[in-house]
């Protein structure tokens, strides 16, 4: 019988069961694996060796640097674009809003295979859509995948294409929730549109901005799809991310212990960032 | 071992299992074996599986095209889980085979148990050592072998006034390439220079293999910084500097270059004999095949680029039946040639080459018996390469070095020396001396 | 007057963004109508070819299209529905009840958000094998029922629901189950719709786990079936393009259906935390 007293336990039971079996146990198992080397019958306990190796592995630091670089450049650009896009979509003067909204959201529907094929066609140097379009503007073909600089830009472009609409739709929801009265009152006070943006829109959107910043940061720190399908981490490891390096060690080199150690390092970093962000943006649970 | 994890999971999942998720292996009726492979090889194997079932009514064979590269993730996870959930028969490439045998002991079945040793001289020279584990076990039978070759555009060579018969070394090929570029605008060869989406080392590896070299020697020492490696990389650099090495990064780039006649040579092994006509049917009559030019005058032109195998999962309850099928499919000339005709997989079985199909003039290649180039290579004594269990790391590191040379103008010797040291350090292997 | 002047430039800018977003899809749709050998031509083809039916027929032949779409839809729908229920129940408990270990469990749950999925896949695979669930739909669905993000979203949204509303129903004599179904669910409908889109997206596109967990081709989901078309250099992109284009359609439909509630739903979750 469900009573007021036991009801929370009943409610939580499915989530708890799923958590224990499919999250807690595998995570603990991976923690143990990170202390071993070899696989299957050849597995042996090596203590903290994998972590020591990690600290001395230049490729790990390269992947950390690359991931951080993409994070610092891409997340602000994308979120800013998404905000501008949402403001546009929210404008009462715009026609066909529902159409633009669907279109803008569509990139986030793309699965990995489609994404890879599309962008490798778009970014190809000799015959890509992007260089073809730039050609009309008189721009010489850019070596999107071949130059260390442009390959990183290519990852940023692909990521931005993929997720800007997603964030814009979230912002749009936030914008629509801001009470109209706030704007009306401010217009009576004679505030211009720029001041209204800073004094009303931004503060009202704060919780939602925080949500997208946290989710985008976690997402970018775990970045895998884009470098996996577009650059393979190249050229010469300039787009190698932590998650991609983890994958290579596990699935290509069969070095599961080391891969698990990388995962734990990544988790620590992500958790650290999460805490820092929450602290900096003014504590919210 | 019914451990706590199993017990816990069992407790929580009992209601679902009870309504029919798990299906214990049916004991009655024919034994069913599952084969994991990929297209188009799967088509040929499926065809002979039906014949096999007729001859062995107690065994059913289910040939599944898992897809390549998806199959590697599927096999690797099964191996990491102690061989659980794997197909009974696995199609494995030479690049993965040593990794699976050495890093997952017991993952693949030792086929000596079923007398596989007796086939040791049946396959193209050099292949048998590649199926042996460090313990001397036989962990696979060779299915496919890819002798090196080059396909060239007869019309472009003609237009540039180059007689392909005079191109016997890569030095001569570079000179020919310059003339072709000038006369037709076509590049000699294409390479994915930044390795976008994955390493493109087949051409470089062929240049190594022609010298009987590779990333490792037979003792497993690192040779990536050796003379042969530098010589091959220097050839690539010279082609690159001469402007005759196209960059084919990006999904469509390569196909466009080929369809627009901008690539004069495809340095592709045997499987391409059936692929080129499929890819560019309208270029019928324009292509020819020949053995690759040698590295140095009078040097070896033949090489085995790669090979693929069928293995039996060490965990399979039906290893015997699985091996029976593998043996049936791979060791009989008439059967392997049926697979070849259906799925375009160039057979590793030496006895297969007496079939008239290997000497038959091919209209697509202007009446040339295109396959003969490759059987000739094998007859000439092409050799197989030791890929080692650390091939994936070597490939990655070598590919980075190639990218440095081709896109940043790095010095081949310097880039490879550094790469070899990194490889040795990462894999705990010795650098080969000299 | 201002409407005209201000509306058009903005609309044109949005149309351009729309073009950039949808352009690659348009190319994809056009590619699906060309033969494999014609797909990667230059300059790119922006007009339809005549191979759509042929590509679709070949795709049906290689993967059993209807069956595969059926599997994917079944798995995605069950998984979405299940995860919605689990998230709702747990979110409700976290937001509206006090119980022992609540905060500790919540923090633990959230911290799993940051663990990369690839790490847990091998232990889960072994477990599924040990209990004989591998190669079954439950194997696909079960691991994705307890979704931290979903629980988080539901909790944040439910925090905003006034307790008075629930207590009023209880005073009227409603049992806990009835309070949930008759009071909480209607209030949460927009958030549930939003979450449904996210969960469905994830389930529909999931690749690595279904690839590993399924053995029988007749049970494959669309991403796994599309991967089976890949053959290093010999992939038939005509088929891949048709399959990819088809796979986007159900998600577009779902977005269109749910977008009204979706948009107001997100707002409830995100602004009132």
Automatic annotation (TrEMBL), chain A:
Its main location: membrane. PANTHER family: ABC TRANSPORTER PERMEASE PROTEIN, INNER MEMBRANE ABC TRANSPORTER PERMEASE PROTEIN YCJO. Belongs to the binding-protein-dependent transport system permease family. PROSITE patterns: ABC_TM1. It is a multi-pass membrane protein. It is found in: Cell membrane. Residues 64-277 form the ABC transmembrane type-1 domain. It comes from Nonomuraea soli. SUPFAM superfamilies: MetI-like (SSF161098). GO terms for biological process: transmembrane transport. This is Lactose/L-arabinose transport system permease protein. The lineage of its organism: Bacteria, Bacillati, Actinomycetota, Actinomycetes, Streptosporangiales.
UniProtKB/TrEMBL annotation, chain B:
InterPro entries: Bact_solute-bd_prot1, SBP. SUPFAM superfamilies: Periplasmic binding protein-like II (SSF53850). It comes from Nonomuraea soli. Keywords: Cell membrane, Lipoprotein, Membrane, Palmitate, Signal. Gene3D superfamilies: Periplasmic binding protein-like II (3.40.190.10). Residues 1-22 form the signal peptide. Pfam families: SBP_bac_1. This is Lactose/L-arabinose transport system substrate-binding protein. PANTHER family: ARABINOSE-BINDING PROTEIN-RELATED, POLYGALACTURONAN_RHAMNOGALACTURONAN-BINDING PROTEIN YTCQ.
Automatic annotation (TrEMBL), chain C:
Coiled coil: none annotated. It is found in: Cell membrane. The chain crosses the membrane at residues 7-27, 73-94, 106-125, 137-158, 179-204, 237-258. GO terms for biological process: transmembrane transport. PROSITE patterns: ABC_TM1. The keyword ATP-binding does not apply. Pfam families: BPD_transp_1. It is a multi-pass membrane protein. SUPFAM superfamilies: MetI-like. GO terms for cellular component: plasma membrane. Gene3D superfamilies: MetI-like. The keyword S-adenosyl-L-methionine does not apply. Residues 69-258 form the ABC transmembrane type-1 domain. Keywords: Cell membrane, Membrane, Transmembrane, Transmembrane helix, Transport. Signal peptide: none annotated. Belongs to the binding-protein-dependent transport system permease family. This is Lactose/L-arabinose transport system permease protein.
